[in-house]
Specification:
This protein folds into two domains: 90 residues, Alpha-Beta Plaits; 160 residues, Vaccinia Virus protein VP39 (Rossmann fold). 26% of the residues lie in helices and 31% in strands. The chain contains nine helices and 15 strands. Strands 8, 9, 10, 11, 12, 13, 14 and 15 form an eight-stranded mixed β-sheet that branches. Strands 2-3-1-4 form a four-stranded antiparallel β-sheet, covered by helices on one side. Strand 8, helix 5 and strand 9 form a beta-alpha-beta unit. Helix 4 packs parallel to helix 5. It catalyses: L-lysyl-[protein] + 3 S-adenosyl-L-methionine = N(6),N(6),N(6)-trimethyl-L-lysyl-[protein] + 3 S-adenosyl-L-homocysteine + 3 H(+). InterPro entries: Ribosomal_L11_MeTrfase_PrmA (IPR050078), Ribosomal_PrmA_MeTrfase (IPR004498), SAM-dependent_MTases_sf (IPR029063). Keywords: Cytoplasm, Methyltransferase, Ribonucleoprotein, Ribosomal protein, S-adenosyl-L-methionine, Transferase.
Length: 292
């Protein structure tokens, strides 16, 4: 089946409404893209964030009456009669197959890979995390997750107890367990994240060693290592909660932090944590250290 793609420029206030208009007029799917390369960070529970300048794209059957649709759109008050738009024909192809072909196993260290479910593991003897890119909550493709995975692969985790604070998909806890940790406790405010973590732990054969909790249910324990890939704001606000998991001489690694935010996060954890030099990928940093 052939398709045609209609792209319109909008703002944050009207982008969702415009997407609804396109769906009501026959769009098979609607996507939202940043029009000015501005970052969006992790939203709060139930919150939907869009960019100040948003490109709204509707996917239509190629036989759709596009002139009639454009005429109707000219009547939309917040677009105006002289709005700009672009149409692009899309060739018929197996989109699912093409999407799958774009994702290959990703290596984070000599002994650590993330492998999509449709691929063979390149190194069967390595710690291979079976996780499909594109799913929610983190799959290793973002610099913050990659920084944490690379750091974990360098640690001696044999027999250790780990806390994965803000566990998301469970990728960091699963990595720690596959790298030799004995137990992982995952904590997240999102019940869907806990479901994803349980499912991924089961797929990777570590569910019996991976416990998950909401913050209201979280147990008291002194871990050997804490990893928290969330955002700078929560890391600062919850520093007392996170530090309570860091046992004597235990290690901690934190990411989800922009370079300009690093010093504020460090201050929230000093003097309890003796920080090593920070690591950086693009504009993101990983802070790591040891409890004094």
């Amino acid at each position: 089946m052939a398709w045609i793609q209609l792209t319109l420029s909008s703002n944050e206030a009207h982008a969702r409404q415009l997407g609804d208009v396109l769906m009501a007029n026959g769009a098979q799917a609607v996507t939202y893209r940043d029009g000015k390369d501005a970052p969006i960070f992790e939203p709060g529970p139930g919150e939907v964030q869009l960019w100040e300048h948003t490109l709204v794209t509707g996917l239509f059957d190629a036989a759709h009456n596009m002139p009639a649709l454009i005429k109707r759109l000219r009547q939309v008050r917040y677009l105006g009669a002289d709005f700009n738009y672009k149409t692009d024909p899309l060739e018929d192809k197996d989109w699912e197959r093409e999407w799958m072909d774009n994702f290959k196993p990703i290596q984070f260290a000599d002994n650590l890979w993330v492998v999509p479910s449709w691929h063979e593991a390149p190194d069967p003897n390595a710690a291979n995390i079976l996780l499909d890119p594109g799913m929610a909550f983190g799959t290793g493709t973002h610099p913050t997750t990659a920084l944490c995975l690379q750091w974990l692969a360098e640690q001696d985790l044999s027999g250790k107890t780990i806390v994965d604070f803000g566990c998301g998909s469970g990728i960091l806890g699963i990595a720690a367990l596959k790298l030799g940790a004995a137990r992982c406790v995952g904590i997240d405010i999102d019940r869907q994240a806990l479901i994803a973590t349980r499912d991924n732990a089961e797929r990777n054969g570590v569910a019996d060693r991976f416990e998950v909790y909401l913050p209201t249910e979280q147990p008291s324990l002194a871990a050997d290592l804490v990893v928290a890939n969330v955002l700078a704001g929560p890391l600062q606000e919850l520093s007392d909660v996170i530090l309570a998991y860091v046992g004597d001489s235990a290690l901690i690694a934190m990411s989800g932090i922009l370079e300009r935010q690093a010093e504020q996060v460090i201050q929230a954890y000093q003097p309890t944590i003796n920080f090593a030099p920070q690591r950086q990928s693009e504009e993101w940093v990983l802070l790591h250290g040891q409890r004094q």
